Amino acid sequence: MTPRATVGSHAAPGPSTSRSTTSSHAHRLRLRLVRLAALLLGLLVCVALAATLAIRTRSGAPGWSERTPAREPRVIPRADILNRFAGAAQGLEREDYRQVALHLIEGWALYRSPEGARAHYPGLPSDAGREADGLEGFARMLPLAATLLMRGEDPEVAAGLKLSQALRAGLIAGTATDHPARWGTVQAYSPQYVESADIALGLWLARPVLWEPLSAEQKVRVAQWLAGTMANLPHDGNWMVFPLMVHRSLRALGVDVSRYDARMQTHWERLMHLHRGRGWFHDPPHGFDYYNAWSIHNAFYWLRRIDPGFGGALVSEIHGEFAGFLRHLISPQGHPPLGRSTCYRMALVAPLLAALEMAPGALPAGQALRALDLSWGWFIAHGAVQAGGVTAGLCQADPALQARYSGPASCLWALRSLTIALDLDHRMGLLDEPRERLPVEREAFVLRHAATGWRVEGNPATGQVWIDMPQAQQPEQVPRLLEYTWTDRAMEWLTHQPRRPDNRVALYRRARYGTDDDIALRCHRATEPAGDRLVSSVDR
Amino acid sequence: MLTQSLPEVAQGQRLWDACIIGSGPAGITIARRLSARGWRVLLLEAGQAQVEPDLQADQRGLVMSDLPLDPQVSRLRCLGGSSNHWGGFCQALDPIDFEPKVAGLPTEWPIRASDLLPWAHEAEQILEIGPTPPTQAYGDQLRIVQMRYSPPVQFGQKYRGWMERDPTTVVVLGACVTDLHERSGTIRSITATDRLGRRFELRSRQVVLCCGGIENARLLLWAHARSGGRIVSDPTTLGRYWCEHPHFTLGEAVLDGEAPFTYDAWNLAWLMPQPHAIRRLGMLNIGLRLVRRSRETTQQIIHRLACSAPELGQHLMRQAGRRVGRRLVCGVLLRAAWEQVPRPWNRIVLSHELDRWGVPRPEIHWRLDEQDRHTARTGATLLGAELARRGQGRVRIDDWLRADAGWPVDDETVGNHHMGGTRMSRDPHEGVVDPNGKVHGLSNLHVAGSSVFPGCGAANPTLTIVQLALRLADHLIGQHT
Description:
The complex is a heterodimer of chains A (540) and B (481).
Chain A: H1 2-11, H2 13-58, H3 78-86, H4 94-111, H5 130-139, H6 142-150, E1 156-158, E2 161-162, H7 163-175, H8 191-205, H9 207-210, H10 216-231, H11 241-252, H12 261-273, H13 291-306, H14 312-326, H15 350-358, H16 365-381, E3 385-386, E4 389-390, H17 416-428, H18 439-442, E5 445-448, E6 455-459, E7 464-468, H19 486-495, H20 504-508, E8 512-514, H21 529-539
Antiparallel strand pairs in A: 1-2, 3-4, 5-6, 6-7, 7-8
Helix pairs in contact in A: 3-4, 3-16, 3-21, 5-8, 6-8, 6-17, 8-10, 8-11, 10-11, 11-12, 11-13, 13-15, 14-15, 15-16, 15-17
Chain B: E1 2-3, H1 6-10, E2 15-21, H2 25-36, E3 41-45, H3 53-56, E4 62-64, H4 71-74, E5 89-90, H5 95-98, H6 120-127, E6 136-138, E7 142-145, E8 148-149, H7 155-158, H8 160-165, E9 169-173, E10 176-183, E11 186-193, E12 199-209, H9 215-226, E13 246-255, E14 268-273, H10 275-281, E15 286-292, H11 295-308, H12 310-323, E16 330-338, E17 347-354, E18 360-365, H13 370-390, E19 393-397, H14 399-402, E20 413-414, E21 445-447, H15 462-479
Parallel strand pairs in B: 1-9, 2-3, 2-12, 3-9, 4-18, 12-21
Antiparallel strand pairs in B: 5-8, 6-7, 7-14, 10-11, 11-12, 13-16, 13-19, 13-20, 14-15, 15-16, 17-18
C-alpha cells in the first residue's frame, strides 16, 4: 500500500496539477462563454434599440410624441357647466346650451394652433397623425362656431382676436397652397375628405362673416381645396354625404360646381341603394349603427337647409320615420351604446331636433328637447365634456372604445345635436318649448322595427331601454368588450401607432344592447363627483 | 371602297341605305351582311387603318372608380376597332343569362338564348371557332366548361380586302360622327367630321351605332342633349346600367391528380356554376379559371395552406412529397371573371372636358358592390366545397375576399368588356333600344354591340356581339323586303 501511497503521494501532484490546470481551463472557458454571452446580449440590445428607433422613426403616426397638455377654460369653468347640466332632468334652458357652447369655444381657443388652421386637443392620437387630428380640431368645431356667429356671438378667442377672425385666418392658412399650415390636398378616403364637409357647412352657415370677407383669390383657393372632395371617391355608406355637403354648400355660395352634378347624383343614388327602409341605411360592412343618426340624418338636415329642395318628399318621409323610432332609444340614462364611434353619443339626438323642421309632426318638439336635455345632461354628468373638449369614450376617455382612426378631436362630432338645436333656436325659438316625456318615461313598450330587424323594449320603472338583434350570430354568447391593456400601451410606445382593441364584434354582433349593459355601465365608473355633488346642491 | 376622303363621299347629298358608325366586329359584320343583299352601305370609322396616337388620344375619358379602368387603353380607334387587340376568348352566354336570376337584380334580357341560336353557326365561322363544346357536371353546383379561342380574328385585317373590293360598300376612315339630327321620329342626317375638322352632313335610310360600349352611349347622350331631348324617348336609362366583367384572383388551390380538369393551350381549366345554384345562392354568373402553376409554386401554395390548416397542410405535403415528382398534385391559381350586377349609377355621363371636335368626353362612374363580393365569394366557396367533398383538393380563399377588405387594386380588375349604357328592353322606360336593337321612339336608329346588353353574364362578349349584329342585319333586311 505504501509504495502505492508513496507512488500515490509522489504521484499526487501530477493529477492535482492536472486538475488545477483543467479547472483553470474550465474557468477560462467559462469566462470566455460569459464574455461571449455578454457580447451577444449587448449586440441583441443594440439591435433591439436600433429596431425600436427604426420602427419609431419610420413607421409611426406622424407627430405621435407631440401631445398637448390638458387645460381647462377659465371664463366659463367646467364646474359651471356641470352645475348647469346637473339639473337636466328638470329641463335645461337656452342659457345652459349657450354656456356650454361658449365653454367649448373657449376650449377650442386654448388648443388653436398659432396660425389658426388646426386645434390640437389633448388625448390619444389617431393613426392619421397629429396634423390630421389638428384639422379635425378645426373642422369639427366649425359648424358650432358658425352657428354661434350667426346668433350674433363673436367672442374673443385671444387678445384682440375675435372668433370670426380666428376662423377666417384658419381657413386662409389651411387652404393656401404654400402655407406651412396648409391642410394638404383632399384625396379619396383621406381625413381631409371627411373634414371638408364640416368646413363647407361652416362656410355656408356663417357666410357673411366667413366667406364674404374673403378676397376673390382666397375664395378660389378655398373652393379649389373643397373641390377635391367632389373630384374623389367616398367610401360606401355615410361618407357619401360628405361630397354632397360640399357640393351644395359651394353651389349656395355661388361657386360653379356643375361639372360635379352628375357625380353627386351618382353618390346620392348609391346612398339610397343602401337605404333599407324607414330612414335606416346599411353601412357596409358593419351593418346598422348610429352613423345613421349623427352622420346621414344630420347631413339631411343641413342639406335641406342649404338646398330646400334636397331629397324632396322622400327625405322628409324617411327622416320622420327615423326620428319617430329613434326617440324610443333615448332614456334618462343615455341610450343603448352600440357600433363604432360611441363617443359621438350626444349627437344621437340630432335627428330628433332636425325632424321638427324636416318632418313636422313626426314627434312633438317637447320630446325632441327632452331627448336633448337628457342626453347632454347624462353624458356631461359622466365626463363627456372635459378640458374644453369632448372626451373620447362613451363617458370619460376610454381607449377601449376609441378606434385607431379616431384622434383627440374626433369626438367633437358629438356637438352636432347642439349645433342643430342652436340653429333651430335662432330661427324658431326652439329652446323655449316646454318639455314632454319620452316614450320610455311614459309606459312600457316593445317595438319591432322591420328595417333593422331590431326589437326595442323600454321600461318606465327603471328607465332602461334594450335593443334585441335577432340577426346576431351567437345569441347565447355575449362577445366581451376587450380592454386597452398594458400590452397595447407598450406597443404604442414602441411603434408610435395607435393599438386599440378591435371591439367590432362586441359593438356589432351582440344579441342585445341596453342602457344597463356592461358597455353602458362603463359610464357609472366615470360619474363626475362634482356633478353628483352639484345635483344635490341644485335639489336643495 | 376604302377611302379617307369624307368630302368626296359627302358630295351630292347621296342617300345611303345604311350608315354604320364604327368598324369593329359589330359594324363590319352588319355592313357585310347588308351589302351582300345589295344595300348601299356607308361605314364610318373615326380612326385610320392603323392606330395613330393623336386619334387614339380621343378615346380618353374621365373615370370615377376606385379600381383601375382606362378607356384609352382598352379601346382602339382604328379600322377593326378593339378587335385589333383582343385575346380571342369566345364563349356564348348561358341560357340563364337571358332569364331572371336573382329577384331584384335587373339582369334579364327581353330575348332568350334561343333567339340568338340561328346566328350561332355563322358567328362561329366569322370568329373562326368551333361549335359549342359540351359541358360536364362537376358535382351538383358546378360544371366544367371549355373556352373557345378565335385566332384571334382582327376584323380590319380579315375584311380589308372585302372593303376594298365590295361595290356597294364605302368605308371612310377618319370620319368621326359628332351629331345626329332627328325630325319627326327619324334620323334625317348625321354630322361627320374629318381629320381637318370639316363637318359634313350625311343622309341614310338606316343608321346603326356600332361605336363600342362607351361611345354608343356617349354619342346618344350628346345628340340627345343637342336635340333638346328628341333622340331617346325616355332617357332615364341612357348611359346607365353600365357593366364590366370584374377580373380578380380569388385564391389558390392544390388539386389531387384525380381532379378531372383538363388544361387548355392557355394552361387554364374553366368552371361555372349550375343555373340552379345561381338562383339558389343569389349569386350571378361567374367563370372560375384554374391557372396551372409550376412545381415550385405548388409547394408554396401547400405551405400557405399549411399555415391556415396545419393538419391538412402536413397531409398535402406528405402527399406532394410522394407525388409531385409525377406531377399528380397540381397547384392552381383561382382566378375569376364574373357578371357584374347592372346598377343604374354605374354609368356613362358627359363630362365638362371636350374632345378636339367639341364633343364632351365620357365620364365613367363605375364601382363594384356587395353583390359582386357575394358572387365572387360564393363561386370560390362552391369550388372549395366540391373539391373537399370529393377529396380532390383544397382551396384557400384570399384574405381580401374572406374579410370584407377592399378590392385589390393591383389585380387585373377588369376585362375591358364594356357593356350596357344603351340597354335592350321591351319597355321604353327600362331601356334605350328594343329587342331588335332599334332605339325606342325612333324609326331608323339602331344600336349594335355590347352596349345593348341588359345583363352581361360571365362570358366574353365578342361572340354574342357578332350574333346580335347578324340578327340586327337580318332584321333590317327583313324590314325592307
